[in-house]
Amino acid sequence: MGDLGSFLPILAMFAVVYFFMIAPQMKRQKKEKAFAKELKKGDRIVTKSGMHGKILDFSDKLGAVVIETGAGKITFDRSAISMEASQKLNAPPAEKK
């Protein structure tokens, strides 16, 4: 029984790390993957580097999207699109009271 008691704090620390760090990160990754799959032509997006544009085409072979910006057409990986910034950009304006 004494041996199990010495491992209990280590198991408790692992449980805390899992529930506060690993599980939320996995949930976030699933949301980002679903967001990337739901993108369609004409969507306005923002990349993680801050580039604003509109989706023109998809390249399934490369896993990339072609984005129209003010400077022209640019190809980006789907993973380079920022979920939070894109959703904020496309959100309806909040009503002022």
Automatic annotation (TrEMBL):
Compartment list: Cell membrane
Query: Which cellular component, as a GO term, is one annotated location?
Result: plasma membrane
**TM stretches of this protein:** 6-23
User: What organism is this sequence from?
Assistant: Croceibacter atlanticus (strain ATCC BAA-628 / JCM 21780 / CIP 108009 / IAM 15332 / KCTC 12090 / HTCC2559)
Instruction: Name it.
Output: Sec translocon accessory complex subunit YajC
Please indicate which superkingdom the organism of origin belongs to. Answer: Bacteria
The annotated topology with respect to the bilayer is: Single-pass membrane protein
GO BP terms, alphabetized: protein transport
Regarding protein family, the annotation reads: Belongs to the YajC family.
